[in-house]
């Protein structure tokens, strides 16, 4: 993909939002023409030139957050430094996710590949990473796993629906959607604030807030895991509309 393909075409209508349909069609054509075993590597190299570095940092931070949680699981449970690192990397990803959108609108550039990469990075940073932190801190029963998986799947569904319906949502004069349907997936960072507080106070593993329900049975789970269920339901809500700032 060349740099020229990223330019967004302006709408001829006075009140209509900017349109990039022509640029996206050209991106599809050029992507389909990529040949050779290493053509995708070349394509991604050109993507780095096209997109803000914030997109790359978001992806790297998301993966490193997951690794930090795993390192905590393999180390001393009383040493919560890796938990803080995992949560901090997720918040760093939230900052760069915000800046990525602002920079893209400022540069008036977009890409189909970039949109998909951004959604996948969001799923890891704001869906999978918080769930892995929760697992590391002690939400490890079978039912806990189901509840955390539900949360991640809600994040996946929310991102997929956004990609499909964003073109149909009402726009302002700049072409930006006026509201979100359901809470945006970065709002899951609010749960990581709670988990950082738990780690600071030593409320981990057997000391998790609200204790354990049905301990020793197949239905054993930590009621605090329901926070993730609530957050997941808010993300996939069709009637909840959150105004964009």
Automatic annotation (TrEMBL):
Segments crossing the lipid bilayer: 48-70, 82-99, 120-139, 145-164, 185-201, 221-240
Superkingdom, natural source: Eukaryota
Sorted UniProt keywords: Endoplasmic reticulum, Lipid biosynthesis, Lipid metabolism, Membrane, Phospholipid biosynthesis, Phospholipid metabolism, Transferase, Transmembrane, Transmembrane helix
Entry EC number(s): 2.7.8.8
An individual GO BP term: phosphatidylethanolamine biosynthetic process
One Pfam short name: CDP-OH_P_transf
Record-level Gene Ontology MF annotations: CDP-diacylglycerol-serine O-phosphatidyltransferase activity
GO cellular component, one term: endoplasmic reticulum membrane
Stored PROSITE patterns: CDP_ALCOHOL_P_TRANSF (PS00379)
Xref: InterPro entries: CDP-alcohol_PTase-I, CDP-diaglyc--ser_O-PTrfase_fun, CDP-OH_P_trans, CDP-OH_PTrfase_TM_dom, CDP_ALCOHOL_P_TRANSF_CS
Metabolic or biological pathway, per its Swiss-Prot or TrEMBL entry: Phospholipid metabolism; phosphatidylethanolamine biosynthesis; phosphatidylethanolamine from CDP-diacylglycerol: step 1/2; Lipid metabolism
Region of interest: Disordered: 1-26
Subcellular location: Endoplasmic reticulum membrane
Topology of this chain in the membrane: Multi-pass membrane protein
Major site of localization recorded for this protein: endoplasmic reticulum
Family, similarity comment: Belongs to the CDP-alcohol phosphatidyltransferase class-I family.
The protein's name: CDP-diacylglycerol--serine O-phosphatidyltransferase
Lineage, uppermost ranks: Eukaryota, Fungi, Dikarya, Ascomycota, Pezizomycotina
């Amino acid at each position: 993909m060349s740099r020229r393909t990223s330019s967004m075409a302006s709408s001829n209508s006075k009140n209509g939002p900017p349109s990039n349909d022509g640029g996206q069609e050209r991106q599809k054509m050029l992507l389909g023409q990529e040949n050779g075993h290493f053509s995708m590597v070349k394509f991604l190299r050109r993507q780095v030139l096209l997109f803000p570095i914030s997109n790359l940092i978001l992806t790297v931070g998301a993966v490193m957050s997951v690794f930090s949680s795993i390192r905590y699981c393999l180390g001393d449970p009383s040493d919560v430094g890796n938990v803080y690192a995992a949560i901090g990397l997720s918040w760093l990803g939230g900052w760069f996710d915000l800046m990525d959108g602002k920079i893209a609108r400022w540069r008036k550039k977009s890409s189909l590949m970039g949109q998909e990469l951004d959604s996948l990075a969001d799923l890891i940073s704001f869906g999978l990473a918080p769930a892995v932190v929760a697992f590391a801190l002690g939400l490890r029963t079978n039912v806990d796993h189901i509840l955390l998986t539900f949360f991640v799947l809600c994040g996946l569904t929310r991102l997929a629906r956004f990609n499909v319906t964003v073109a149909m949502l009402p726009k302002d004069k700049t072409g930006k959607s006026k509201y979100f349907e359901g809470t945006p997936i970065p709002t899951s960072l609010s749960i990581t604030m709670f988990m950082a507080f738990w780690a600071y106070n030593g409320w981990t593993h057997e000391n998790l807030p609200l204790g354990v329900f049905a301990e020793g049975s197949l239905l054993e789970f930590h009621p605090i895991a329901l926070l993730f269920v609530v957050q997941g339901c808010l993300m996939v809500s069709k009637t909840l509309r959150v105004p964009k700032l």
